[in-house]
Backbone:
């Protein structure tokens, strides 16, 4: 199997992001220094050495703002020097601190404005610059996220590609010694003839031209039909199936065939993937041919043998994906839905090919048996059974992809329900507090408990008792 990746480009991009993050971290350190200088200047020079409640609150918010900014700098420094393959947890930590830092920066600016009872243009500019730096920091660490979740799962996993073998002859005969097809000599009647669609139509008996004309120009499915003593049909191999088999596909391979008077006629365009495919088949022949019709099941075996390997690899990728999802269900992997959808589409393409080809081979088995080609009939029957089993394997893998999507969605829903349960409990706990706040916020004069010297402590005690009672009820009912 081969997996194509662009490691050099990824390494270059990561290097640029690390340098950019390093510069932003340096600027954030400078901003912290300016904030500390401004904080001490305001406290000691502007408001005197005596710190009242207002000054203490301003100093606390400014100090918290600086400390959180320094914390994101430390997290950014750790991310710059991270050597592991998976940094998703550290990136999440950096993002969380960045959000907190942006919020504290704005809060600190508002608190300063309220303490000074004025909005300074310098303070506004400082807040905008610091917040912009934090935003740039957040964007950079987001782009730096690297995870090993998709290792061995994503990418193009296909068999080693077939090598191009050049052009193809137009006439072949069965070699009596090897029982394989070879280029026909000038003094013998060819058994397989490759024709253009126009040449092919000239050789088709007049009585069946109208029945096959509609499918000869644009073959889109495989089929086999016996009309009197003539065998006629189509073979189609989609681009996705070719890639699964290791071919450098440039389009679907579709051609028609006609077996008449002991000759197999193939209708192929002069330029296209069909003739390159036929040339590869001629190089990799292995079936003994008692009749030229044996070429058709041989073409199918050439595809299905390698597609079977591809399906096995796909199953392994999906099983690894399922295992990764069990380990960390709380994290929604990026591109999960797209990957599953692409997988089911690729597998559906291969499954459709197997079903159509299996039907064609079953019909071809009956045709060759009726014509007395027992060996060719046996070959078609064996290949037909292989294709049917392959179709079942594809269906199983496709069902596995659907089960992974359904199972993951169920686990996500369970997690969301748990989150909603926690939020509901929190809301329920704060409902009595909100009720009491609204109750004592009413502007009534005759509220005697307001004049009681211990009313504050009494109400606070009642609220604490209610909260404890709620938690006891929740625990009793196993809500948490």
Residues:
């Amino acid at each position: 199997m081969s997996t194509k990746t662009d490691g050099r480009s990824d390494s270059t991009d990561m290097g640029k992001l690390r340098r950019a993050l390093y510069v932003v971290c340096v600027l954030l350190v400078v901003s912290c220094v300016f904030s500390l200088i401004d904080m001490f200047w305001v406290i000691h020079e502007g408001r005197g050495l005596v710190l009242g409640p207002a000054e203490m609150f301003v100093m606390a918010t400014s100090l918290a703002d600086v400390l959180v900014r320094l914390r994101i700098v430390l997290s950014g420094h750790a991310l710059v020097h991270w050597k592991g393959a998976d940094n998703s947890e550290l990136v999440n930590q950096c993002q969380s601190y960045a959000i907190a830092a942006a919020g504290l920066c704005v809060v600190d600016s508002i608190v300063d404005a309220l303490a000074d009872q004025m909005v300074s243009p310098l303070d506004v500019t400082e807040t905008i610059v610091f917040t912009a730096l934090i935003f740039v920091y957040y964007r950079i660490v987001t782009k730096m996220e690297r995870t090993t979740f998709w290792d061995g799962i994503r990418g193009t996993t296909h068999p080693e590609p077939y090598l191009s073998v050049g052009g193809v002859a137009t006439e072949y005969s069965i070699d009596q010694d090897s029982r394989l097809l070879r280029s026909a000599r000038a003094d013998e009647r060819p058994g397989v003839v490759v024709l253009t669609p126009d040449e092919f139509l000239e050789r088709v008996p007049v009585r069946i031209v109208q029945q096959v004309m509609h499918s000869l120009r644009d073959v889109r499915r495989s089929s086999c039909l016996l009309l009197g003593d003539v065998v006629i049909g189509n073979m189609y191999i989609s681009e996705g199936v070719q890639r699964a088999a290791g071919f450098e596909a440039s389009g679907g391979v579709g051609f028609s065939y006609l077996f008449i008077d002991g000759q197999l006629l193939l209708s192929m365009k002069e330029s296209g993937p069909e003739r390159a495919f036929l040339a590869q088949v001629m190089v990799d022949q292995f079936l003994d041919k008692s009749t030229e019709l044996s070429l058709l099941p041989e073409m199918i075996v050439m595809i299905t043998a390698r597609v079977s390997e591809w399906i096995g690899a796909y199953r392994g990728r999906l099983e690894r994906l399922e295992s990764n999802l069990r380990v960390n269900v709380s994290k929604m992997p990026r591109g999960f839905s797209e990957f599953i959808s692409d997988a089911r589409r690729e597998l559906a393409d291969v499954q459709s090919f197997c079903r159509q080809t299996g039907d064609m081979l079953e019909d071809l088995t009956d045709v060759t048996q009726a014509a007395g080609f027992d060996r060719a009939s046996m070959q078609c029957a064996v290949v037909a059974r292989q294709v049917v089993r392959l179709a079942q394997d594809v269906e199983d893998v496709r069902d596995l992809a659907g089960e992974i999507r359904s199972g993951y969605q169920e686990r996500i829903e369970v997690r969301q329900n748990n989150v909603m349960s926690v939020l509901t409990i929190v809301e329920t706990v704060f409902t009595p507090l909100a009720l009491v706040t609204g109750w004592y916020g009413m502007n009534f004069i005759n509220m005697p408990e307001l004049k009681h010297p211990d009313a504050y402590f009494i109400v606070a005690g009642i609220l604490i008792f209610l909260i404890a009672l709620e938690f006891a009820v929740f625990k009793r009912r196993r809500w948490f």
Observations:
- The first strand starts at residue 171 and ends at 174.
- Residues 1-6 have pLDDT under 50 and may be disordered.
